[in-house]
């Protein structure tokens, strides 16, 4: 939008609309008098704003039996935010599955769909699988594609602001993929792409283990672990979007590669995929000595990688997610290591959201975008 001056009436209308809409979204429903009390706006202003929001489909008059007790006489008109006025998608694109979450404008999940995908699948095959999951989800929920207001996406790799995957070793043909552009062909709404660990960190802060913490590191523990960080409640992506790529630390001359760490023979584990690693962990649970040693080496490497990030960021909480979160004994070594080096060791816990973390965080990205549209005032106001 163009530059607004301090006396521009369109700016005032936008501010008033955002204030009233925010007040209505924070309650089941409210009368004009209640909205006036919460917002401090005059009755004529509130009436005009509510009328405009109703015309825009974001507010509706509540039914007589909604949000209040019956009183004698003519009841006051009550209004509510129409969370059903639009919908959001949160998508996960991973090595072994694609998943989708559908919500209303309040972030209430209305449905979920996941499909397995082969880790060797091409980019086109993986995206086709994702589109199929989305189509099935929308059909089951009875939601038109035109109702979507924003789509969030979480995927492995270093992701640029425009949704291009600059580097990804987890998925074939993913490096250099203009993922945001490709998905935008399927949706007539903004598509926001983020690294999967970053998305999972947002999810745990929204609905998981970190809801009471604004300084948190989320570790997405896999063959090549990654981490997402919130500092002061805000996602820290770094200068080039590569913050938290702890899986690359073994490249700094520290010796053994993941293939060597997880080997139960004198040769590196090949191919290094999750099926082969799962077999190593299964053998360790059965008491196999060499497999147990491999698991111990893997845990120690993960512990050291996380400790390096914690020392740099000094978070209050570390949340461990990903498939390695199910390993026996992963938390205690991490707590001991952090206690050795940190003046104030952070709390360490497992993810609450599990495999839903990435898609949930992607949904939060979409919700943040829509909330910024509905409730934020143009940045020019902040500079006055």
Report on this model:
- With 384 residues, the protein is α/β, with parallel strands linked by helices.
- Helices cover 39% and strands 19% of the residues.
- The chain has helices at residues 9-25, 32-39, 43-55, 123-141, 179-184, 196-207, 258-261, 274-285, 289-313, 331-341, 357-375, 379-382; strands at residues 30-31, 59-61, 78-81, 87-93, 97-104, 109-116, 148-155, 158-159, 165-167, 191-195, 216-220, 226-231, 234-236, 317-321, 347-350.
- The strands form 4 sheets. Strands 6-5-4-7-10 form a 5-stranded mixed β-sheet. A 5-stranded mixed β-sheet has the order 13-12-11-14-15, with helices on both faces.
- Strand 4 and strand 5 (97-104) form a beta hairpin.
- The chain starts with 8 loop residues before the first helix and ends with a helix.
- Residues 1-7 and 379-384 have low confidence and may be disordered.
Helix-strand layout with pairing:
Blueprint: H1 9-25, E1 30-31, H2 32-39, H3 43-55, E2 59-61, E3 78-81, E4 87-93, E5 97-104, E6 109-116, H4 123-141, E7 148-155, E8 158-159, E9 165-167, H5 179-184, E10 191-195, H6 196-207, E11 216-220, E12 226-231, E13 234-236, H7 258-261, H8 274-285, H9 289-313, E14 317-321, H10 331-341, E15 347-350, H11 357-375, H12 379-382
Parallel strand pairs: 4-7, 7-10, 11-14, 14-15
Antiparallel strand pairs: 1-3, 2-3, 4-5, 5-6, 8-9, 11-12, 12-13
Helix pairs in contact: 1-3, 6-11, 8-9, 9-10
Feature tags:
384 residues; alpha/beta; five-stranded mixed sheet; 15 strands
Average pLDDT, all residues? 87
Query: What's the alpha carbon Rg, rounded to whole Å?
Result: 24 Å
So what's the overall shape?
A: elongated
Question: Looking across the biggest beta sheet, what order are the strands in?
Answer: 6-5-4-7-10
């Amino acid at each position: 939008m163009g530059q607004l001056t301090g006396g521009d009436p369109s700016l005032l209308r936008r501010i008033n609309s955002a204030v009233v809409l925010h007040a209505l979204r924070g309650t089941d429903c409210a009368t004009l008098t209640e909205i006036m009390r919460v917002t401090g706006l005059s009755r004529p202003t509130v009436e005009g704003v509510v009328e405009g929001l109703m015309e825009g489909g974001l507010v509706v008059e509540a039914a007589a039996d909604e949000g209040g007790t019956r009183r004698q006489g003519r009841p006051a008109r009550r209004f509510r935010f129409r969370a059903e006025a639009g919908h959001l998608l949160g998508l996960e694109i991973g090595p072994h599955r694609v998943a989708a979450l559908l919500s209303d404008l309040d972030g209430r999940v209305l449905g979920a769909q996941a499909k397995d995908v082969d880790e060797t699948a091409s980019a086109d095959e993986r995206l086709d699988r994702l589109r199929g999951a989305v189509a099935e989800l929308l059909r089951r929920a009875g939601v038109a594609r035109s109702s979507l207001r924003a789509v969030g996406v979480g995927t492995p790799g270093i992701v640029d602001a425009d949704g291009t995957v600059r580097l990804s070793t987890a998925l074939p043909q993913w490096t250099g993929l203009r993922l945001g552009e490709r998905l935008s062909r399927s949706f007539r709404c903004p598509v926001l792409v983020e690294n999967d660990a970053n998305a999972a960190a947002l999810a745990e802060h929204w609905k998981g283990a970190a809801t009471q913490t604004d300084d948190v590191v989320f570790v997405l523990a896999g063959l090549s672990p990654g981490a997402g960080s919130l500092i002061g409640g805000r996602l820290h992506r770094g200068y080039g979007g590569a913050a938290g790529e702890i899986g690359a630390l073994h490249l700094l001359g520290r010796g053994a590669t993941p293939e060597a760490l997880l080997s139960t023979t004198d040769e590196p584990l090949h191919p290094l995929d999750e099926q082969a690693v799962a077999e190593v962990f299964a053998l360790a649970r059965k008491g196999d000595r060499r497999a147990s040693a491999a698991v111990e080496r893997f845990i120690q490497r993960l512990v050291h990688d996380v400790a390096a990030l914690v020392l740099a960021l000094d978070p209050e909480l570390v949340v461990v997610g990903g498939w390695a979160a199910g390993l026996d004994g992963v938390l205690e070594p991490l707590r001991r290591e952090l206690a050795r080096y940190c003046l104030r060791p952070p709390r360490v816990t497992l993810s609450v959201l599990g495999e839903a973390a990435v898609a949930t965080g992607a949904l939060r990205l979409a919700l943040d975008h829509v909330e910024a549209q509905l409730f934020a005032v143009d940045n020019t106001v902040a500079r006055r």
